[in-house]
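Translate sequence into structure tokens.
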Amino acid sequence: MSKKLIITEKPSVATDLARALGGFVRHEDYYENDHYVLASAIGHLLELACPEEYEVKRGKWSFAHLPVIPPHFALQPIAKTESRLKLLVRLINRKEIASLVNACDAGREGELIFNYIVQHAASRKPVERLWLQSMTPEAIREGFLRLRRGSDMQGLADAALCRSESDWLVGINGTRAMTAFNSKTGGFHLTTVGRVQTPTLALMVE
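Result follows.
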């Protein structure tokens, strides 16, 4: 019998969905009933990494190596949650899993968390989107009666990916440029720069 794999953004949401839908048996880190397998991420499980051929060792950052604009962005597991990523990949690849339900938070970040997991798993299984504005049991059950097509969220997915990659480009290039500038008289003076961090710090200083 085929089943759908539901992936939530955090464990507490998986627990809420299991209670609302009912009939689940809890295994160590996931739930299962006759129709669904239900598991969660723990926030972001993957992050963008500099492709190895474009990496410059810390301490050797200079303006000569800037800007860093790789031809592609590589994903790497976040070490502290790698075991959860492996669990999700294993569940995605189970033979009886016919499709996936993105039940991550309704927004760009939730879209990104789910899509990075699917990309890492190299899955081509069909995707549906659970879109909730309320976590009451009634709202959850109603949401599962009105699942959206994954393709309907393509614009949101593109926006999430664009923000992720632009954050990476600003952070990597800004941090390396400012570190190189502040280290030009010797030593290594790490100076971090970020799209959100830097203007927020400037507001505090002003």
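Note: The chain has a mean pLDDT of 94.
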